[in-house]
Amino acid sequence: MPIRKPTPGPKPPAEGGLSGKIKNSWVRWFAEVSEGFFEFASFLLGRGAEVILDVLGQAFAPVLRPI
Predict the structure, then answer these.
(1) What is the rounded distance in angstroms from the CA atom of residue 39 to the CA atom of residue 50?
(2) Mind spelling out the 3-state secondary structure of the chain?
(3) Range 37-41 average pLDDT
(4) Angle made by CA atoms 50, 55, 57, in degrees to the nearest 5
(5) Does position 34 have pLDDT exceeding 70, yes or no?
(6) What whole-number distance in Å separates Cα of residue 30 and Cα of residue 65?
(7) How much is the pTM?
(8) Which residues contact 35 (CB under 8 A, 6 or more apart)?
(9) Dihedral sign, CA of 38, 41, 43, 46?
């Protein structure tokens, strides 16, 4: 009976984002850091906008309440 080579299984899924497609370690590190920075910046901008709208709502509440 001939010995068969094992068939290769499915490849593991690549990591999400840009860093999963890059082989060079330095470029990959830079891509991961920049992705993290932009995620953090977008979180801060979103949270900052929420705080600004909350403050504006409290400031104009007495003016808008009779309407």
Answers:
(1) 17
(2) CCCCCCCCCCCCCCCCCCHHHCCCHHHHHHHHHHHHHHHHHHHHHHHHHHHHHHHHHHHHHHHHCCC
(3) 82
(4) 95
(5) yes
(6) 50
(7) 0.38
(8) 17, 18, 19
(9) negative
